[in-house]
Write the structure tokens for this entry.
Amino acid sequence: MLSRLFIQVSFALCAFSLALTPLSTKLAGLAWLMFCLLCFASAWRNRQSLHFVSDSPSSHAQLVEAGKIWLVCCLIAAILRIITHALWHDDWSRRHAEARLLILAFGVYLGLRYSETVSIKSLQIWMAACCIACFLAFGITLWLQRNTPAHPIPWAVSMSLIICLMLPFALTCRERLFKAALWLCILWGVAGVLISQSRGAYGIVPWVILVAVMSGFPVLGKSRYLKPMGFIVFLGLLCTLIAWALNDANDTLRFQAFAAQWTASQSHLQEGANSSVGARLFLWQKGWDAIQVKPFVGFGAESSVLQIRAWGQVIQSEEVMRLGHLHNEFLDAWMSHGLLGLLSSLTWPAGLSYVCWRLRKQYPQTCLSL
């Protein structure tokens, strides 16, 4: 009885904190914690009443196998980074991301292996929480614009991830009213990302358009012309959006600022390094030059930060010194921890791609959300 009550409370707190995620990063952390506890508690409660799911011939066994693959990938990535971290005696607080991913992957694997299938009602509650999050994101950016509760770039990226989770359910939902509400909230979420002016998260726009257009055409029937038509429609909508952004007098999406900063950086990289775009281009170039000096072992995280600050001081760029990192996960990992650091960062997208490949036939909508 106690474990069932704990599962219900964890589920409720997780859905509640997920819905309010746009308001605070602390609530996002609470959602992560409650989801992990939910998986662990569910697996513990069913450890004796259920057989191993992967021992049965059901298609659900593929999900268990996918969970195991993802867990192994997270474990490999963490071990590789721990080795290089210990080698350079870096600050261990930098490894919190790997730890969170590993704990979450372990919880998901246990939940898939021991727990029963998630009910439609539970999924609807999750989606309702995501809808509330998208609505709040739209309202926050409409009111505060770029002054989001957290840094606008990770804030917008987190909202993009929520939208990606909603897309498969919005495509397969059979209740018309709920399906319409999902698509409306997805549009609100996309609008929130755009209003935040976080260019690094704009990729959600072509993804939503592509998924919506390509998934809508099979409803019309089977024809070899429909998919090419869908792709043409997708390109047309995307080009229309880009053309509007480039000619918008108010530069709402900051595309014109991006083009101007890019042009200035191309003419003189160091002089253009005081802009956000120019600083990134400058850091990528300097980072690549540093990697060629020590490609196998790197410089260590602390030393890399000091080098970046030194580069900024040489060219007197406050933007470079403010960033404090290369603003590219793979280059940053390579410069800090050499080839092992790069392999650690590449393990996650490689593992996720392999999981999608394994699930593409039985669970196409799951692959779409991943």
Q: What stands out?
A: The two ends are 34 Å apart (CA to CA). The mean pLDDT is 82.
